Amino acid sequence: MQSAIAVRQLVKKYEEGSAGTLALRGVDVDVHSGELLMLMGPSGSGKTTLLSIMGCILTATSGSVRVAGREVVGLGEKQLPALRLEHIGFVFQGFNLFPTLTAGENVELMLDLKGVSAAKAKKRAQELLDQVGIAEKYASFPADLSGGQKQRVAIARALAGDPGIILADEPTAALDSHTGRNVMEMMTDLAKKRGRAVVIVTHDSRVLSFADRIVRIEDGAIARNTEVETVPPGLLAQNLPQASVGLV
Amino acid sequence: MPPLAQRNLFHDKVRLAVTLTGIVFSVVLIVVQLGLFLGFTTATSNLIDHSNADLWITSKNVPYVEQGVAFSERKLNQVRAVPGVADAQKIIARWTQWKRHDGGQDSVQIVGINIDDPMERPWNLVQGSVQDLKSPDAVILDDLYRQKLGVTGIGEVFEIGGHRARVVGFTHGIRSFTTSPYVFTTFKNAQNYTNLREDQTMFILVKVAPGARLEQVRRDILDHVRDVEVFKTAEFSRMTTFYWMFTTGAGVAVLIAAVLGLVVGFVVVAQTIYATTVDHIREFGTLKAMGAPNSYVYKVIMKQAAIAAVMGYVLGMIVSVFVVHGSQKGGAAILMPPSMAAGMFFLTLLMCVGAALVSINKVTHIDPALVFKG
């Protein structure tokens, strides 16, 4: 089965003056459609860098990254936006909604980028907000929404482009347990029922049970790449480092 | 496109007010300065532009109409004898002193004409007629200068250059660039008022016969008449305007003020749009992460600038119309023809869009990882 994202020997070095920082050291990882993969690791381990490169926001120093079957390493700045627009939807920790646009208009913005007409965009935005359970908030501004509602709008926006891949950076960090669980249920739904490849960067141990696979990154390298079923169930409830023990 | 540009612009009302104030200031300043320049330019060559002559004949080395030097009127017959000359008339334009009833004196420019000839005569008459100048000591002046010269109505008698003068009519809108108003009278009266001899004139106006080549007639006059210069009307008009506007520096000063207005507007708009862009940098980063090409982001910024330009232009033109209207009763008219108003729209748009380019560089180099920072 072709991976939605296939990363091979990925290296990312940040050039800072005469010295440089090696953020990723030869990472190999695959993400499949219908799978929810979590990237975990301490701060500065390279998780967000890996997510950014998967999302064609950052460019790799070397290695191979195939997104939806297409090699993206070496592509120029002019080609990457089109790739993101076609294949990737983002969900951010801070929601990153446009505060001067309503919930509906935030979703319409993604559709406008895809070239959808204004009338169709409005209709589709209403459908998407309905799917995430906040259709009644169409005309509300982000300042009038709760954290959970904002994240739902963000998810609807990410889905608006009909991408095959959803990349989420700490989507539950700013949410309470109940709301976070709701968001994770939606993410699981995206993977299982809608066949998306979902990658989540998280520190939140509360959401580990939603993962199909957990990839632990330490110092820019994969420490563990673990199918959740192989992890002793008790360990999922505990802190992550113990949960990373297992078979690849 | 969802109304991102409009919402960003109106989101911060104080910043919007600052932006619009800058644009309005710029528009009004440019309109006033350019309008003054246009008004001045028109006033400097009024007399020449309103003549129906094709050629102006002056003494040697006369750079502008107010610098005329008297010469023999016998040259008039020599000019009339040149082939291609349909008509030639003497005219005087010279400074002298007008004495008010309170004893004070003001400088005026006497324009002495042949009132039966259509080549030069007062225009925009609102009281009296050109034929009234046939009565003894008759003069016509512009109603703009009534107060300055102490004139209250038709029939009043004054002294010009030590000779009697009686007001028989008023024009409206004939401004002089200098502080000396034009006073129209007969050629004979003008000789008296300006202390010219009976055999002297200041200029000769020429009408070229239909079918005759203007340049050829001009050269022929130069060949037949000694010690004169012959200018086409437009050329003499340009020379006079150039002298007053650029040789004296008056026009340059006005144009510099107009450029200053443009610079102020540019700086204010650039600063406020840049500040707005920085405020919304995270959103622009998100737009790019979502897959928006740079051109989409630029469009948002340019749209903000364009909306601000249109709003600022409309407000600025409303203020400008009041200023222009108020200036009509003054000595220096501010002119705003429709072409200037239209041109100002495009200049305002260019100014604002150009100022927004400062922000373009900022969004082009957004750090992509910005979107992942909490």
Helix-strand layout with pairing:
The complex is a heterodimer of chains A (248) and B (374).
Chain A: E1 5-16, E2 19-31, E3 36-40, H1 47-54, E4 62-67, E5 70-71, H2 80-87, E6 88-91, H3 103-113, H4 118-131, H5 147-160, E7 165-169, H6 177-192, E8 197-201, E9 213-218, E10 221-227, H7 233-236, H8 240-243
Parallel strand pairs in A: 3-8, 3-9, 6-7, 7-8
Antiparallel strand pairs in A: 1-2, 1-4, 4-5, 9-10
Helix pairs in contact in A: 3-4, 3-5, 4-5, 5-6
Chain B: H1 4-11, H2 13-44, H3 46-49, E1 55-59, E2 71-72, H4 75-80, E3 85-99, E4 105-113, E5 125-127, E6 138-142, H5 146-149, E7 157-160, E8 163-171, E9 182-186, H6 187-193, E10 200-201, E11 203-208, H7 214-224, E12 228-232, H8 233-247, H9 250-279, H10 281-290, H11 294-327, H12 338-364
Parallel strand pairs in B: 4-9, 6-8
Antiparallel strand pairs in B: 1-11, 1-12, 2-10, 3-4, 3-7, 3-11, 5-8, 6-9, 7-8
Helix pairs in contact in B: 1-11, 2-8, 2-9, 2-11, 2-12, 9-12, 11-12
